Amino acid sequence: MTPKLVGLAILGCALTNVNVFADECDDAEALIEKAQSAYETVDAKGFAWVPTETYLADAKTENSAGACAEAIVRAQRALDTANAAMRQAEVEAAAWQSRVPE
Amino acid sequence: MKHSLTLTLLVSLSLSAVAGPEEDRAAFVQFFEKRFPGLAVEDHIDGAYALDEDKRKQWEALEAGFPPYEDTVFDGEALWDEGFANGGSYADCFGGSPAVKQKYPLWDALQGVVTLEVAINNCRQANGEAALDYLDYDMVALSAYVAFESRDELINVDVPDANALAAYEEGKAFYYQRRGQLNFACSSCHLEMAGNKLRSERLSAALGHVTHWPSYRAKWDEVGPLHKRFMECNDQVKAKAFELQSQEYRNLEYFLTYMSNGLPLNGPTTRK
Fold first, then answer.
1. How far is A80 from chain B, CA to nearest CA, in Å?
2. Which residues pair with B216 in a beta bridge?
3. Searching chain B, which residue's CA lies closest to the CA of residue A53?
4. What is the CA angle B43-B47-B53, rounded to 5?
5. Which of B187, B239, B242 sits opposite A50 (nearest CB)?
6. Which of A35, B133, B187, B249 gives 20 to 30 Å between its CA and that of B257?
7. Residues in chain B within 8 Å Cβ distance of A48
8. pTM for the structure as a whole
9. Contact B28 A43 (CB under 8 A)
10. How confident is the model at residue A19 (pLDDT cuts 50, 70, 90)?
11. pLDDT per residue over A46-81, tens digit each?
């Protein structure tokens, strides 16, 4: 392989990696937005969880620092906990009545 | 005859489905009477110390000496007596006496549930003073003084109309709803598990929970209000807490205080 070809190969790899990272950061951004929206919905119902807030804050910090893979993991946890909190809110809309002493 | 019996049965069933505050309170008290047959209802104003003899002795020793809330009560008295720049005073707002805690929270058509702390700020603002933050030392001191002067008064809160009842019902729902990642309701610890131990701590009964606030908590190393404890409870089960004096906590206090109607006030006091 000529030095020119090697150079082209390296450049190709580098560009591909940049694209991968750019895609990852876009994914993180989208997931953070989705988690934020889920959090706000459940918060409006009065059932938000503390860990959702923590995961969201961490995801935003990591995303800003360019640690997009970590941000995705954290944002997914935020989304999962927000969804679990929403299920809790839905169940508790009626379930609490069974706990009232009669 | 058959029809009238059916009608009576239907009416009684529908009444039990929409039990009012007084029916709720009777069932609440009865629950704790059955759970703790050796205790008088009034004993619950001492919280976990009514359920644990060893802890009670330590607590009584602390109360008998120089209780850590004493200075706060004195400071509150000084603030009460000092009055406002316009010549008005807290006494003018509260009918001349600081012994008023037994009436709070009360229902107001404009403001909804008015707790003692909200009433103190209403008084300040009516006299041209700025409202105090609900964790401000002066607010805590004033409410501690009012609580001290109200000792032995019997809680007597009222749910006067349909709007008040709606607020009460919201507070009731909040009390029994599971929240947070740990999926706990207030009632999980202080009703279902009352008297049991959570690690080394004895869980107090919900009955009498409101009689002794504000309280000096060793954990806080200061006197603090009931709503701070609500926030802490929510945080402990990993639920996002509400603001002090938020509508949610005021409604919760309304319900919880109604459940303790008729019990004597004994605040401020000390808790771990």
1. 11
2. B223, B270
3. B240
4. 75
5. B239
6. B133
7. 239-240
8. 0.89
9. no
10. low
11. 999 999 999 999 999 999 999 999 999 999 999 999
